[in-house]
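sry for the spam today, last one i promise. struct tokens for design, 264 residues
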């Protein structure tokens, strides 16, 4: 069995007449927590769609657990920026829905028992019967995480899952996702705009350029968890460098957008 959960080699992609990737390469190791950081519009969400077989590339190849994405989608689960819960089902019902869409081998009772276990794991053991409207933003996102775990994926793809939450909730959710990852040993690919978030979470951070997108830098972070950015000189140094680079990238992207708009 390969050490890689995901391998992307020489990806080329055009969308709407624009070159998104020319030759993008990156790998995700089995069990790794990888954060993808990059300016808006560089193709972070798109990379998750390519991995999840929702979009085909024009060139290059993607392997998920050694197979083409179309043969591996059942090993994947998504968590998006908004939790996408069904309003007429309670927390347990929403997690069960994830399983119903994937599994026909489990009875309803088994699915509910599993849903309760997972909601307990994400800290919602006391809110099992609450409907989405009665849950806070952070609690709803926890239901979405429990739903992702419920399909027993090997890999979880997370697209800015905490960016809509307030700062304190976001910090708590970061600690929790690390704890869940340590307990469940999944591979996590986590897209974010937030330098600090990437540094707190990742085994490795990929910094992407603006379009056509390539990997500008890979940073391996060995610092033990839970991490405190302010207390670690090494993390602080990464933070300062990344903030500076990231600001430059965002400015370049803004400038090229303005140039394109004025040229059009
Ligand atoms: N279906 C589509 N048709 C045309 N262009 C698309 C389509 N989907 C995405 N794009 C373009 O591809 C580029 C990458 O989009 P993507 O959503 O992956 O960016 P992102 O890095 O996730 O950005 P953000 O940080 O703002 O979420 C953008 O320029 C976007 O406009
Ligand atoms: Mg995106």
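last one done:
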């Amino acid at each position: 069995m390969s050490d890689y959960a995901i391998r992307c080699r020489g990806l080329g992609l055009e969308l709407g007449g624009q070159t998104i990737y020319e030759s993008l390469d990156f790998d995700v190791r089995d069990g790794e927590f990888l954060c993808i950081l990059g300016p808006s519009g560089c193709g972070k969400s798109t990379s998750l769609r390519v991995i999840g077989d929702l979009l085909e590339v024009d060139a290059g190849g993607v392997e998920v657990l050694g197979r083409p994405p179309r043969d591996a989608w059942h090993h994947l689960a998504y968590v998006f920026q908004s939790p996408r819960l069904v309003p007429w089902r309670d927390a347990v019902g929403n997690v069960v829905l994830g399983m119903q869409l994937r599994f026909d081998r489990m009875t309803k009772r088994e699915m509910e028992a599993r849903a309760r276990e997972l909601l307990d794991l994400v800290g919602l053991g006391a809110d099992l019967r609450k409907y989405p409207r009665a849950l806070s933003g952070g609690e709803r996102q926890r239901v979405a995480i429990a739903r992702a775990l419920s399909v027993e994926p090997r890999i979880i793809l997370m697209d800015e899952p905490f960016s809509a939450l307030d700062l304190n909730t976001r910090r708590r959710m970061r600690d929790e996702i690390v704890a869940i990852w340590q307990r469940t040993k999944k591979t996590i690919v986590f897209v974010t705009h937030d330098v600090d978030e990437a540094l707190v979470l990742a085994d490795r951070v990929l910094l992407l350029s603006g379009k056509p997108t390539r990997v500008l830098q890979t940073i391996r972070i060995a610092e033990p968890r839970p991490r405190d950015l302010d207390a670690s000189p090494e993390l602080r140094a990464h933070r300062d460098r990344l903030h500076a680079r990231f600001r430059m990238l965002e400015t370049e992207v803004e400038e090229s957008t303005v140039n394109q708009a004025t040229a059009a």
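The domain at 32-57+68-205+217-263 is CATH 3.40.50.300 (Rossmann fold). ok im logging off now
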